[in-house]
Amino acid sequence: MRPLTQDESKAVFTKLANYVVRPPLHYPLLALPQLHPQGKNLIHLIDRKDEPYCFRLHKDKVYYVSESSMRLTISVARPNLVTLGTCFGKFSKSGKFKLHVTALDHIAQYAKYKVWIKPNGEMPFLYGNHILKAHLGRITEDTPEHQGVVVFSMNDVPLGFGVTARSTIDTRKLDPTAIIVFHQADVGEYLRDEVLATYFSRVQVLNRFSGNAFLNRPSSSMRALVVSYSLARVMGYYIWTQSRRSFAFRWDFPARFAQYTPYRLWFFAFSHTVAGSMKMVDVHVSARRTPAWSSTTTMDETQPYIRWQNIQDQDITPENVRDVLSAVDDDLWAVAACVDRRVDNVDTQRSLLELGITRTSSAVHRAQAAPRIPTPDADSFSGNNQVLTMYFNDAPDDAQLCRMRALLLHRCDRLSSFVQICKDVSTEEDHSDDIDEEWEDDPWAEDGEISLPPPRHRPADPPIPLSEFLAEDMLQIACFLASQQQFTALRTIMLHHSAALWPSRFVILDSIPSHTHPSEYREILPAYDISQDAEQTPSFNSWRTEQDWVETPEVDAALKASQAVSHIEFELYQSKDDATACTESLGPKDLADWYKRRVDVIIASTGILDIALATVQHGASRGVPDLDELGEDLSLLSRLVYDSPQPREPQDSQDWTLACWWSTEPAEVVRAYLAHSAPDTVAKDITRLVMPYLFVLEARAERAGNPDPGLPIRLLYDYILSAPLPIVAAIFEASKPTLPVTHRIIRNDEDVARLALACLYGSDSRAEWSKMSSIFECLPAWEITPGTEDEVDEADATIISLGSFVTPSTTRPHCSSSDLMLFFKPLPLVSLSRALDILDVHLESGEILSRWNVGAPLQWFLQSAYDAVEQRAWANRMARRTGSSSELNGKDEWEWLLEDMLKLCGSSETGLKSAFGLLSRDEVSSIFFAGLLSSGSFDIAGELLRQRHGKLSLPPLIAEEISLSVSREFYDNASSGNYKTGDMKLAYDCLAVPPPSERLSKERDFIEATSRLSSFNILSRPGVPLSPIEIRLTKDRLSLISRVLSSTADAYKHTEVILDLLHKLGFEGDVVAEVRILAMLSGTALQVEDFSRAYETSKRMIEKVSKLSAEASNDNEDETIREASDVCWVACFQLGRHPEFEDVEAKLSLLGRALQLCPADRLHDVLISWRRLEKEDIESRREYLASRTVTQSKRNTPSSQKHASSLRDRLGELHIPATPLINAEDAAALAGRAFNRVASNFTFAVTGRARSGSSGEDTRSKSRDGTRGRFDSDEVSTQAGRVLQKGIGWLLGGDDDA
552 Cβ partners below 8 Å, 6+ apart? Predict the structure, then answer.
């Protein structure tokens, strides 16, 4: 097993492409799937949906196998592998690929060109024969010549494949015996191949027995060998004549096998085709009489034998027959010559037949004069038959002459029929060529123009040549005439050859094209004889009144029993379709079944229902029973196909058959009748198409014993309930109460009301209000007197239950018109009238909603009648969708909308509430105003709101609330924060409609703040700007300013801008928020080491806190001051301890403020920073003083000595800058009061850069370990005083270590 090579693949695909698709000649086969539009069929063999397939070669055979199976076979050794997959064919020794029948199933799936053969042609094809036109059922249109085709039965069962001999167009012109498809392979090979070896061995034996002269045939034709032997078993021995390329039967071959015979007689010449199959083309009888002296004497050309043999068939004349053939002395030779020759000339053929019959008379007399053995009457026939058989065995020449006489007599009858056919054809053409006398003179002929004489018509050509008419099977001739619609000729042969054709009458009838009208062959149709209760038998009108002796059963049986005549001769003119022959008269049921089958064939093959109906009608006229119901169905079906409205596009029409008709439900049939009816024709279509069908159904039910008077009305109502509203409106228009009852489609007024209610409330339409109104106008109006209170309550309860009935549920998602019809059917007249009043209100409301593009189905009005939430939602939709559609451009239109909305919230004259009946006028006005604002028509909204006596009257607070709500909707939907464009502009402008207020002002400030925040390009996530809705949803809006400071490098420089943004975000007057923002600004400046701006911002922050503290009372410090102080001291502490900030005075000032504002538990940390800063400042001063002292000592004389100065002198020399702590009150008291004021620790840690010195580290370590607890007031004051004294002790001359 191996893959195919390039050449092998090309050979395989070339063969497959001949059947799957016809490849262009200029395209290479391997590129076919890519270049040819239909070459993809070959791809389907490889790339299948289930799994890929491939081709593999094994022992010269090509197998089609799936890749999974192919992989499994790899494990099998090549000598042990017998087969795999499907065998597609085999390569010959010369490298040619031959397709096998095993590939049929795969080829049939993708074949483009197909041929279907009739049932009588299946067996010949399955025995290896070619397909004749007589066996052709169908063929694919535009099939070219020499194209590979797949052969199917009429049931679409693949039988084999072959090659077309002619194209589809040429096939129509051929006679029934012409070859249409050359045989290539068939499924019969599965049986025949099993016996090929047996046939071959027997033929070899016969070949050796004959001395290699028997069956000397070409060695390349194996099938010719098998067929020749199968024929030899039936017919006798055959001799292959190389010169004539035909098999010849030698009747005396067994008796005279080894010696030369004086005369030879050949029957049944067969042509040898390329494929090796055999086809009978003629009954060829030739006789040669060689005188006994011929072996020694030269033959004279003037002898009648030689002269007759030299005359060709087309040159034979009656004179030749009279002068040449009559001169032959040998009767057997002369009669055989008459049988052998068939010509197309009637007179010549008649002279041949008459001569042959005359020359056989002597043999008939001798046979009749043969002695008879006297026998009893009972066995007289068999005894005489034995004697006659013995005579024919002893006198084989007379037996041959008697048999040929019967053949000649049969040809005489055919000749008479042929002559009659020619006369009838000529008569028909004469009638068809008759011209009306008033048209003989050309009225348009010019003056003086000479009218030419009418042309003389030549004799009409016969439908079949005489030579073929005499030789062909009469059944085949009849089938041919029937297929060609030569009914005159067919009636002639059916009349004069009834004995041979009547058993096969149904085969002949089946050959008539299905599209032919039965009136043309009415006489041939089977009829029913009521007197005999069987099929009517036609009368036999033979050309000869008396039967000849050789045609008697006695002689016929003797000839068959004798060995002088081959048995095949007796089957010469008998029908070959014995399986379809029907010699018995059919009964009434069988006749009806045949007509039904004929109708099925007509409809299936042509679809012409008129022909099928006419066939049934002719059958009924000929007395065939049980065709009435079939005629009714065909009549109704023909109305459906021909009289009902058809679709515009032909492909939309449905193909109807009887089987489809019978399997379709009556309701579907009614819908099919009216499927393409227009509103202006549907009423007439129901009257002329549907009502007759419904009456037929009612009559059939009554005949079946199941009467159903309500069936027509029920089916009609079912259609109306499922029809579209335009059709329903037309039906109600034809059912108005003002019309006469007989002219109305729906005749019951209450049914009209019920159907209208069911159709309208069951419809989902939202735009066809004009049709709904027209339906309502067609409804009856009843004058109902006011009933009792119970009746009114019952009617109201019914309507309330109707709303619950139409509400969707899990068991019934949608309430259809049929369901509603079940609800309305039992309602009394009072409830129906109440339902019609409600329908009137709902239709008016529906028109109003549809006018403003918010249409709702009628069911909605029932469902929302007691649902205020649903009504409010629909009112909002009405106000907002209308505004968003941009269809309302003026004030008048908006006032119109307001008027309609207020109308919908009212009630009708009868007290029935409208669509928004559960909503108040103020609520509807508020909904309208919101919708008006959402449309962006602020000028119109302000104008309507400011009108004193206008229809829109809203309190200021409600108007303000609506404006705020709409503005926030615009804000939330805005994609950009710029309030100069888009939805943000609408949100900003919307706030100007109602009178100004504080809430509106704050909202405007917030929109402005949003626009300013958007200008800083703040991102919510990488690459996505912060949207307005995110700004509104931010809980801590101060974080937005923090994000601004972090995203913009120089934002901290614009203090006033940031503070203004803070105020617009809603923090105006909030000191704590301002302190926090100033702290953020200071921290941002500190991060970028802009210490001067950080110090200025801190000073502003300290001022804010100091002012806030000053305004508050000394005894009551609120949480606001505490929170502001916490923020302020942390900011001061951070900046004051920053090592890079070089302004010591500013730092000491900031740390002083931190000491003043910080809580008690953080005072120690601030003091550490203060002490370190002081220490650093003192050291710097000492260094400065030391450097200054050295400079002064250098300036003094060397002899002078430096005296130690006193403390007063040193203090006088130093210049100490003033600090807040020096000028302030006692530090201990300040610290005590600060710690007493702070009640809690910081909520965050205060950290800074790394400090030098162990005291700071120890302090932080103790703070982290939690060893340092809280101090009460006295301890804090004492410690603070001690620390401060120690910090400034050096100023007083104290020791550093003390």
Answer: none
DSSP E strand stretches across 984-1027: 1019-1021, 1024-1025
For residue 427, what is the enclosing H or E element? helix 396-432
> Could you tell me if 775 and 729 are in contact, meaning their C-beta atoms sit under 8 angstroms apart?
yes
**Does position 757 have pLDDT exceeding 70, yes or no?**
yes
- What is the pLDDT, as a whole number, of residue 772? 93
Report whether 642 contacts 547 (CB < 8 A).
no
| Phi, psi for residue 204 in degrees, rounded to 5 | -65, -40
Distances (CA, A) of 1028 to 78, 349, 966, 1019: 79, 112, 15, 12
Residues in contact with 1287: Cβ distance below 8 Å, sequence separation at least 6, in sequence order: 1167, 1170, 1171, 1174
Point out which residues pair with 89 in neighbouring strands: 62, 99
Closest CA to 929 of 959, 967, 969: 959
Contact criterion met (CB below 8 Å) for 388 and 375: no
3-class DSSP state of 1226: coil
Provide CB contacts within 8 A for 777, sequence distance 6+: none
Burial of 991 (0-12, 13-18, 19+ CB in 10 A): buried
Distance (Å, whole) CA 847 – CA 1041: 54
> Percent of the chain, pLDDT > 90?
22
Which residue is it, tokens 């001999």? 165
Q: What is the pLDDT of residues 361-420, one digit of tens each?
A: 998 898 888 765 444 444 455 556 788 888 888 888 888 899 899 999 999 999 999 999
Whole-number Å distance between alpha carbons of 1298 and 1286: 8
Residues 974 and 1011 sit within 8 Å (Cβ to Cβ): no
Instruction: Using the CB atoms, write b or e for 573-588: b if 16+ within 10 Å.
Output: bebebeeebeeebbeb
In the numeric block, which tokens belong to residue 244? Answer: 């004539």
Distance CA 1140, CA 1007 (A): 41
Query: Which H or E run includes 1031?
Result: helix 1028-1033
Which H helix or E strand runs over 350? helix 346-359
Q: Amino acid identity of 825?
A: K
- How does pLDDT run across 977-998, given as a tens digit for each residue? 899 999 999 999 999 989 889 9
CA distance 161 to 159: 7
Question: Residues 613, 631: contact at Cβ < 8 Å?
Answer: yes
Q: Exposed, middle or buried, 1117 (CB in 10 Å: 0-12/13-18/19+)?
A: middle
- What per-residue confidence (pLDDT) applies to 893? 86
Phi, psi torsion values for 1036, nearest 5 degrees: -100, 95
Rounded to whole angstroms, the Cα distance separating 826 from 832 reads 10
User: What single string gives the DSSP state of each residue in 330-341?
Assistant: -HHHHHHHHHH-
- DSSP string computed for 663-712: HS-HHHHHHHHTTT--TTTHHHHIIIIIHHHHHHHHHHHHHTT---TTHH
Question: Is the CB of residue 266 less than 8 Å from the CB of residue 238?
Answer: no
Torsion of CA 1131, 1132, 1135, 1141, to 10 degrees: 160
Q: Which residue has the tokens 């041979």?
A: 500
Q: What are the pLDDT digits (tens) for 155-179?
A: 999 999 999 998 988 888 888 788 9
Which residues contact residue 338 at a Cβ distance below 8 angstroms, ignoring those fewer than 6 apart? 325, 352, 353, 355, 356, 359, 404, 408
Enter the DSSP assignment of 240.
Answer: E
What is the secondary structure of 43-76 as a DSSP string? HHHHS-SSS-EEEEEETTEEEEEEHHHHHHHTTS
Distance between CA atoms of residues 140 and 158, nearest Å: 15
The H-or-E segment that residue 1109 falls in is helix 1091-1111
- 3-class DSSP state of 1246: coil
